[in-house]
């Protein structure tokens, strides 16, 4: 349904959102069974930043940012704005003025399937942003869309109130009802990786820790000395 602004949708608990922010996007996606990732084309305009927030979703028309203006009113503390359009768009729908308004409302960042501009200003003001493109191309305010409805980016459905986690590696969406479960799974994965890291520091090989020698054998991979390899090729 287009042309609707949904108010007060259910949201993940901010305690869970903040707990998920302790983990990287890769860890959280793996903890959910390697799911939830937006595509690699959605990239940060800054480096060294990780944020998590509850999604306020926007779907508008290409080259038109009127629904972002409408969405600002629906944003509050701990939210993260997520924007897409009805068809592909790389115009600069979002910039420093939007960020200023959102920052005053406690919004933690923006993820957009479109273009973004004023990237230096966004970095200077500490407003985190991920986008598919960087473009100075301006926009109009002429066609209605929707706010706080389910949207899709790169095959991932994002509902208002879902958790969005973003860092240098990309963006992942955690369904709001799976937040607590994903925290527990992420914690377990971090502990497992810490043990593996310690083993690697001590010199253990992944081939042995993960039992991969038998896998290589099953796949028909054989070891040969250089002399044997050269002799077989002559």
What is the radius of gyration computed over CA atoms, rounded to a whole number of angstroms? 22 Å
Largest sheet: 9 strands, mixed
User: Which structural class best describes the helix and strand composition?
Assistant: alpha/beta
Q: Mean of residue pLDDT?
A: 97
Number of helices: 9
Give the N-to-C terminal Cα separation. Answer: 69 Å
Q: Can you describe what's shown?
A:
This protein has 234 residues and is α/β, with parallel strands linked by helices. 33% of the residues lie in helices and 24% in strands. Strands 1, 2, 3, 4, 5, 6, 7, 10 and 11 form a 9-stranded mixed beta sheet that branches. The chain is elongated, with a radius of gyration of 22 Å.
Which tags fit this structure?
alpha/beta, single chain, 9-stranded mixed sheet, two-stranded antiparallel sheet, 234 residues, 9 helices
Concise structural overview:
By secondary structure, the protein is an alpha/beta fold.
Strands, helices and their partners?
Blueprint: H1 14-20, H2 25-31, E1 43-44, E2 51-60, H3 66-72, E3 79-85, E4 92-94, H4 96-103, E5 109-116, H5 119-125, E6 128-134, E7 146-147, E8 151-153, E9 156-158, E10 163-167, E11 170-174, H6 179-201, H7 206-209, H8 212-218, H9 226-233
Parallel strand pairs: 2-3, 3-5, 4-5, 5-6
Antiparallel strand pairs: 1-6, 2-7, 2-10, 8-9, 10-11
Helix pairs in contact: 1-6, 2-6
């Amino acid at each position: 349904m287009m042309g609707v602004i949904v108010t007060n949708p259910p949201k993940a608990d901010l305690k869970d959102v903040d707990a998920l922010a302790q983990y990287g996007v890769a860890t959280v996606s793996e903890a959910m069974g390697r799911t939830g990732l937006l595509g690699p084309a959605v990239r940060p305009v800054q480096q060294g930043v990780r944020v998590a927030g509850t999604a306020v979703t926007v779907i508008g028309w290409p080259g038109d940012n009127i629904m972002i203006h409408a969405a600002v009113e629906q944003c509050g503390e701990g939210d993260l704005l997520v924007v897409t359009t009805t068809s592909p768009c790389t115009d600069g729908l979002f910039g420093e003025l939007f960020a200023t308004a959102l920052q005053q409302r406690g919004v933690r960042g923006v993820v957009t399937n479109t273009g973004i501009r004023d990237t230096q200003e966004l970095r200077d003001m500490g407003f985190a942003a991920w986008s598919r493109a960087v473009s100075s191309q301006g926009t109009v305010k002429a066609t209605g869309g929707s706010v706080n409805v389910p949207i899709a980016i790169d095959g991932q459905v994002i509902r208002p109130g879902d958790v969005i986690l973003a860092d240098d590696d990309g963006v992942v969406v955690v369904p709001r009802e799976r937040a607590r479960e994903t925290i527990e799974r992420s914690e377990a994965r971090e502990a497992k990786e810490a043990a593996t890291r310690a083993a690697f520091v001590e010199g253990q090989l992944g081939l042995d820790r993960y039992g991969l020698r038998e896998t290589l054998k099953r796949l028909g991979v054989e070891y040969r000395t250089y002399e044997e390899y050269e002799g077989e090729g002559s």
